[in-house]
Amino acid sequence: MSKLVCTLDDRVINEYPLTKERISIGRRQNNDIVIDNLAVSGLHAAIVTIGKDSFLEDANSTNGTFVNLKPVRKHVLVDGDVIEIGRHQFKYVRGNSQVSVSKSATQVKEQHGKEEHAGSTPLEKSPHTQPPSLKSLIQMSRPMKSEEESLSETTPSPIEAVSLPIGKLRILNGSNGGKTLTLNKTLTTLGKPGTQVIVITKRTNGYFLSQVEGHEHPSINGNPLHTLSYGLKNNDLLEISGIQMEFTFA
């Protein structure tokens, strides 16, 4: 199980297992993680966990949320990432990882150097007023290996496993109507940051859609999405930020 290790002034003060699909962080007492500090907003940020993947969302906080010393609005967490909220630091430890919890944010910066995480949306680059184009609508995160792929590197199998068909999204309206997007990444982010953002996760048993940002729900086959994770089916019709799409298997 993944967890957050909280430190203050380089001292470990608590650990928070990510046992819920959404963990809220802020100054108000109704948050899952309460930080009693005026530099922290009432609802400052949230961690959304879908399967084995966790996403950090800044909740339009006053002083911002930082990952490895960089301001972000939305970020796909990687084992060892250090989240800074006010003076508190939270190290993300994925699953059974043995990553040391003693590293400070400065040490993380030295370790990563100029490396950028493909799964994060920097604060200064988040669009606000432009309608979603094809380029801004689809942001691909870096691919991650599935359990089957990792196993095959060390344990040869005489029987080839049945591979999951590649999913595709065909855009039905707007200036990009008729174009097709291939879902060949582990995580695909769709929508308009600040308004409506969803994530399609490619797993070993199918493609799953979840909303990670926004109060307006996307629709599936004309009905608003009310589940935390929806398993996409062939020929499902989606509407996300006004863009209509059809999901199909290749």
Core attributes:
250 residues; mainly beta; 11-stranded mixed β-sheet; 43% strand
Account of the 3D structure:
With 250 residues, the protein is mainly β. 8% of the residues lie in helices and 43% in strands. The chain contains 3 helices and 22 strands. It has helices at 105-112, 134-137, 147-154, and strands spanning 3-8, 11-17, 22-26, 33-34, 45-50, 53-58, 65-67, 70-76, 82-85, 88-93, 120-122, 138-140, 167-171, 180-183, 187-192, 196-203, 206-213, 219-220, 223-224, 230-231, 236-240, 243-249. The strands form 3 sheets. Strands 1, 2, 3, 4, 5, 6, 7, 8, 9, 10 and 11 form an 11-stranded mixed sheet that branches. The chain has a 6-stranded antiparallel sheet with strand order 14-13-22-21-18-19, with no helix packed on it. The protein has a 5-stranded antiparallel sheet with strand order 12-15-16-17-20. A hairpin with a 2-residue loop joins strand 5 and strand 6. It is elongated and about 55 Å long.
